[in-house]
Amino acid sequence: MKRARHKPRPNWQSTVESQGLVYGTPARDARGRDRPYWDESVHYEFEMDEILALEADVELLHSMCLSAVEQVVLMERYAEFGLPEWSWQPIAESWRRCDPHVYGRFDLRYDGRRPAVLLEYNADTPTTLLEAAILQWYWLKDCFPGDDQWNSLHEQLVDRWKQLRDLLPSDELHLSWSGV
Q1: In what residue span(s) does the Glutathionylspermidine synthase pre-ATP-grasp-like domain sit (predicted)?
Q2: Looking at the predicted structure, is the pLDDT value of residue 135 above 70?
Q3: All residues at 6 or more sequence positions from 157 whose CB lies less than 8 Å from its CB, including other chains
Q4: Which run of H or E residues covers position 12?
Q5: Measured between alpha carbons, how far is residue 77 from residues 84, 104, 118 in Å?
Q6: Bigger pLDDT: 3 or 112?
Q7: What are φ and ψ of residue 107, in 5° steps?
């Protein structure tokens, strides 16, 4: 894995905002300056063996996360995870019905020498679609048009919705997002 620096695109802030990234500057750096959510000054380049190792790590992490959810439901440990009491029954019912998941995105710590370490798992979170698919893809095409990325999110989402089509109660699908 190689960490590479790259000059951000001209007017990159307005470019990513026009692509839907409107949650601005959510944090500050160590000096108190605004730290933008999206950063075009650095990117990572991987070798194919690293990609294959990461894919194996992700499959294992996903199965471990599902096992953890199962334990939370079976042992009724919702309060330990800060889940409000009104959500406990719907969570348990959803788990028992085996409601399908659509996708997930892992935030990993990876140094290229050891297996990836899970920092955060965003499952079925619409905001991650924007950064993980749209923004990355257009940045890549603008800056490195001949390159490819380790991300088949769009294709996989199309396939997943096809798999789930017959499991849904109707042809209508509603997604929601809340900042609460």
Answers
A1: 12-176
A2: yes
A3: 102, 103, 129, 133
A4: helix 12-18
A5: 11, 22, 21
A6: 3
A7: -100, 120
With a pLDDT cut of 70, the percent of the chain lying above it is 92
C-beta separation of 161 from 168 below 8 A: no
CB atoms within 10 A of CB 152: 12
Q: Which pair of tokens denotes residue 102?
A: 């659509």
DSSP 18-81: HTT------EE-TTS-EE-SS--SEEEE--HHHHHHHHHHHHHHHHHHHHHHHHHHHHT-GGGG
Cα angle 154, 127, 69; round to 5: 90
Contacts of 179 (CB under 8 A, 6+ apart): none
Helices (H), 76-177: 85-97, 126-129, 136-143, 153-164
Q: Which of 107, 129, 125 is nearest to 58 (CA)?
A: 107
Angle subtended at Cα 160 by Cα 130 and Cα 180, rounded to the nearest 5 degrees: 45
